[in-house]
Design brief:
The protein contains 5 helices and 3 strands. With about 100 residues, it is an alpha+beta fold. A 3-stranded antiparallel beta sheet has the order 1-3-2. Helix 4 crosses helix 5 (about 60-70). It is globular.
């Protein structure tokens, strides 16, 4: 169990993500990426553009996957906005795996 997982009180297995019938393939890959990057933190901040490049999909697909993961309770999203009103990278907290 990683420190991030201990902080929010659960144990994650990649098998449970892969077995989920509620998630799209992109959502599964995105969630696995988020989990792998939260090894020493409770949350991470990434631009959708960067995640889209790493996974090999469009930013629109990443936004849909983030929405799906948030709706199903797998992640919590904090939308960051700069002082001049422009959107910045979202902060993602991996919440749980069902």
């Amino acid at each position: 169990m990683t420190k991030a997982q201990e902080c929010i009180g659960y144990y994650i297995t990649y098998e449970s993500i892969e077995a989920s019938k509620a998630l799209t393939d992109c959502s599964k890959r995105l969630l696995c990426r988020y989990i792998s990057y939260t090894k020493n933190k409770a949350e991470i901040t990434f631009k959708n553009e960067l995640m889209a490049q790493w996974i090999g999909v469009t930013e629109k697909t990443i936004r849909r996957s983030i929405s799906q993961l948030e709706e199903l309770g797998y992640i919590k999203v904090k939308h960051n906005i700069s002082n001049d009103g422009k959107y910045k990278a979202n902060t993602i907290q991996v919440d749980k795996v069902k």
